[in-house]
Fold this sequence. Notes:
The complex is a heterodimer.
Chain A: E1 3-5, E2 10-14, E3 19-21, E4 24-26, E5 32-38, E6 44-50, E7 56-58, E8 64-68, E9 73-78, E10 87-94, E11 102-103, E12 107-112
Parallel strand pairs in A: 2-12
Antiparallel strand pairs in A: 1-4, 3-9, 5-6, 5-10, 7-8, 8-9, 10-11, 10-12
Chain B: E1 4-7, E2 10-13, E3 19-25, E4 32-38, E5 44-51, E6 57-58, E7 67-73, E8 76-81, E9 90-98, E10 101-105, E11 109-113
Parallel strand pairs in B: 2-11
Antiparallel strand pairs in B: 1-3, 3-8, 4-5, 4-9, 5-6, 7-8, 9-10, 9-11
Amino acid sequence: AQSVSQHNHHVILSEAASLELGCNYSYGGTVNLFWYVQYPGQHLQLLLKYFSGDPLVKGIKGFEAEFIKSKFSFNLRKPSVQWSDTAEYFCAVNAPNNNDMRFGAGTRLTVKP
Amino acid sequence: GAVVSQHPSWVICKSGTSVKIECRSLDFQATTMFWYRQFPKQSLMLMATSNEGSKATYEQGVEKDKFLINHASLTLSTLTVTSAHPEDSSFYICSASHPSSPLHFGNGTRLTVT
Lengths: 113, 114
């Protein structure tokens, strides 16, 4: 079964700093990859997803992620964070022929104004 | 160990029957639980937000009479798919949260309606 690892539990940054959140998965086959964000008190929102094609995926709010197949990684990046990016970020993976989705434990991002 | 237990992990039922899925928070009190559904080759879709002791808030397009949600206690929310049909076959996942606790997910339930 696939699993997802997020390396950082809590990241604290100042505004305008660059962000990279790590995500690794363990699954040998083709996968679909997702990054979700949960703002305080709200439900999950999709930031971006990778199904196939260009491994560099652009998402909403200036986020992007790069799929590196050889490293089984799908790290999330943003060049310059804002205070409003304070939230919890979840990486998720599922196989195209398997409807089950697995989430990482999440990374809490705190951006100081 | 898991902090949110979702049961069953998979279920096969006949068309017309009802299926209940349970979502339990094991070591914290979940004031809010979310129910999601994932269609093939798509991301999660929020179905409803379940607050303890009050009626669930359903997203647009989700039939509240078909997908009954009950959040009777701070540790348990249930989703009942009533009169299930093959098009209801999907992966359902819950998440639970508390203001002082991070969001936790269940392992999901794969429902197959024959």
